[in-house]
Each structure stands twice: as structure tokens, then as C-alpha cells.
Design goal:
The chain is mostly helical and 365 residues long. It has one domain: ABC transporter involved in vitamin B12 uptake, BtuC (Orthogonal Bundle). The protein is built from 14 helices and four strands. The strands form two sheets. It has a two-stranded antiparallel sheet with strand order 1-4. A hairpin with a 2-residue loop joins strand 2 and strand 3. It is globular, with a radius of gyration of 23 Å.
Length: 365
């Protein structure tokens, strides 16, 4: 019998981290430019959009929150290979946990609110993950969908959760030490920067995770779980850990969404939201981490454009997603990592090989 601990590189040596998930320089350049544009928006937004600058600031904040949500799902879909249609379960859980525990007449402290959201979502993800991880393929997809809809109907029919109207939140949490306020989240610009910082920190954490020994095991599970199990790895532990981490990150995104709009409602736990964030991951490029961020921006910008173009914007969105999947099977990230090209250096070896094969055949004859 094989025995292995959760993290024991001495027992099972694997390739070094830099061999996996390496990004070319242009990826870092594009992501750096994107962050620079976002950070500088309060400086140039008013000159470009005039009175609509505040509206587009709210829109950009929403996109950043959805990028964080997509990043959490990519850990499951792209890294581990588990396609979930119920990830809105944790997004809605984060929103409702924040809404139901916030004081009615005073702001909550971020120092206990954030750990509470992480703790509640982590516990539920541990329970749900323990059950759904025993299924595979379409059964895993349908099981996660079922759990997600459980929360949706629970909050929709609950008086304590506000029913179909949801719950309204009067105050955003305060980030303070004693009487000294560190960050004023009531300021839309400050909240925008806080959301960007959380996105960058989450990306850095998942980037470190995928390059670690733990992340390499997840890659092995994604490629061939049976082989990893035959090598002695307890794959259920690894997948369950990834599922819990993914759920906790999604819950933080849900909390940010409730903080931004000042309410939590059942639509934040509906399966349609799970489908939308899955399309963001596919459009951006699964398993790349930076791809879902690009996918969130692309999806929301297309959504905004089509919605203001026609009332049948969903038809245009569906056709665009289908064409994008057919033309860009690796998503937007594939354009940066390995752009499609037909160079002579690739064609020439093939023609040379075929010519040598033909010569060999003639000599044999």
C-alpha cells in the first residue's frame, strides 16, 4: 500500500514549480498595463466620460469583483479540472453572511466581518465538497448545481433573508484601529482601489499556489487522477482543499458585491450567475489565472455594449461566445501565450520530413 501525506516532496519528487504555468513577458506587460489603466482611471475618467465618470467607476468596480469571482472558479475548472455550475452558492453565501450579520445602525468592523465570511464559506465548502467530490463528470456538474439551487430557494423563501426582495445594508464595514480610520470604504474611489488590491493579492496567492508542490499535484490530478492515485496521493484531500479555497475566495467576491450595491438578493446565488462566470473563465482561458481576469473584462464590456445596442442582446452574446470558443479554443490567454501563426520555420520541417519519407519509400520499392 502507498502512503503519503498531503505535502511531502521527499516521498514523491516532482518537477520544479517554474516548469509549470510559466508566462511569457508579454503577459506581464499586458496585465501591468491593465492594472495601470485601472489605477489611473480616477485621474482621467472625468475628462473622458464627463458626467458619466462615476457610473463607469461603479462599472469598473463591478468588473473587478467579477474578475475575483472568475479567478476563484478557475482554480476549480482550469487547475483541478472540476467544472462547477453551482459556484454562485459561495458568492451568494458571502453576500448574505455580510448582510445578515451587519449591525442595523452602525458599520461593522472589517476585522471580524472578513474572517466571519471566510469561516462560514470555508465550513460550508468543506461539507459540500466532501459530498460532491465523490462524483465525477456530469454528475459533479449536476450535484454542484443542485447545492447551489438549494441556497437560492432557501434565501428566496426565507423571511429572515428578505425573500425575493433580499436584505438591504445601510453601512459598509469600517477599516479602523480604535478611533483611527485607516480606509474609508464609503468613498467609491477608495472602495475601487480596495477591490483592485484584493484582486492582485488573490492572483499573487493563487500564482504562488500553482507554482508550489501542492499546485503541481493539482496539475497531476487534472491530467490523470488515476495515475496520481496509483502513485499514492490521496487525491480527495487535494481536491477538497482546492474546493474550499475556491469557495472562500468566491465568498469574498460576494461580500464585495453586497458592499458595493448595499443589498443581497437571491439573484446573487442563482445558477445563471454560475453560468456567466463559467463563460468568463472559458472566454479568458482556463487554467491560466490571468485569463479569467481578461475574460471578466471582455464579457462585461460585451454585455454593456450589446445591452445598449438591442433588446435582444442575449442572442448577440450567445453568438459571440460560440464564435470565440471556436476561433479561440484557449481563450484570450491563448493569444498572448501562443498566438496563432503559420511561420516558415514550422512548415519547413514538416515538408522536409515528408520528402525524406517519400525518398525512403522509393528506396524500399
Amino acid at each position: 500500500m502507498f502512503k503519503s501525506t498531503l505535502l511531502n516532496p521527499k516521498v514523491h519528487p516532482m518537477p520544479s514549480g517554474p516548469l509549470l504555468h510559466r508566462y511569457p513577458l508579454k503577459v506581464w506587460i499586458v496585465m501591468g498595463l491593465l492594472i495601470l489603466v485601472l489605477l489611473s482611471y480616477p485621474l482621467w475618467g472625468e475628462f473622458v466620460f464627463d458626467r458619466r465618470a462615476d457610473f463607469f467607476l461603479e462599472k469598473l468596480t463591478t468588473i473587478v469583483i467579477f474578475a475575483l469571482f472568475a479567478l476563484s472558479l478557475d482554480l476549480l475548472v482550469g487547475i483541478v479540472g472540476l467544472v462547477s455550475l453551482g459556484h454562485a452558492l459561495f458568492f451568494g453565501l458571502g453576500a448574505y453572511t455580510f448582510a445578515m450579520t451587519s449591525p442595523a445602525f452602525s458599520p461593522a468592523s472589517i476585522w471580524w466581518m472578513l474572517p466571519l465570511v471566510l469561516g462560514v464559506s470555508g465550513c460550508l465548502a468543506l461539507i459540500v465538497g466532501f459530498l460532491v467530490m465523490r462524483t465525477k463528470g456530469i454528475f459533479f456538474i449536476m450535484t454542484t448545481l443542485a447545492f447551489g439551487q438549494m441556497l437560492y430557494f432557501a434565501v428566496r423563501q426565507s423571511r429572515e433573508a428578505g425573500g425575493t426582495d433580499g436584505l438591504f445594508i445601510m453601512f459598509r464595514p469600517e477599516v479602523a484601529i480604535g478611533d483611527w480610520m485607516l480606509i474609508n470604504l464609503d468613498n467609491p474611489v477608495t472602495f475601487f482601489y480596495a477591490a483592485i488590491c484584493l484582486l492582485i493579492l488573490t492572483f499573487a496567492f493563487l500564482r504562488w499556489l500553482t507554482l508550489s508542490y501542492f499546485g503541481q499535484v493539482l496539475d497531476g490530478i487534472h491530467d490523470n487522477e488515476d495515475r496520481m492515485r496509483a502513485l499514492g496521493y490521496h487525491t480527495l484531500h487535494y481536491k477538497l482543499t482546492a474546493y474550499v479555497l475556491s469557495g472562500m475566495i468566491a465568498a469574498v467576491a460576494g461580500m464585495l458585491s453586497a458592499m458595493q450595491y448595499g443589498f443581497a438578493n437571491p439573484s446573487q446565488a442563482e445558477w445563471h450567475l454560475s453560468g456567466e462566470v463559467l463563460m468568463m473563465v472559458i472566454l479568458g482561458g482556463m487554467g491560466t489565472l490571468f485569463g479569467p481576469i481578461l475574460g471578466a473584462f471582455a464579457y462585461e464590456l460585451l454585455h454593456f455594449s450589446f445591452e445598449h445596442l438591442t433588446t435582444h442582446w442575449k442572442l448577440l452574446m450567445g453568438v459571440t461566445i460560440i464564435v470565440a470558443v471556436l476561433v479561440l479554443p484557449r481563450g484570450l490567454a491563448g493569444l498572448l501565450i501562443d498566438p496563432p501563426r503559420l511561420s516558415r520555420s514550422r512548415v519547413k520541417p514538416a515538408s522536409t520530413e515528408s520528402r525524406n519519407t517519400a525518398d525512403t519509400s522509393r528506396e524500399t520499392l
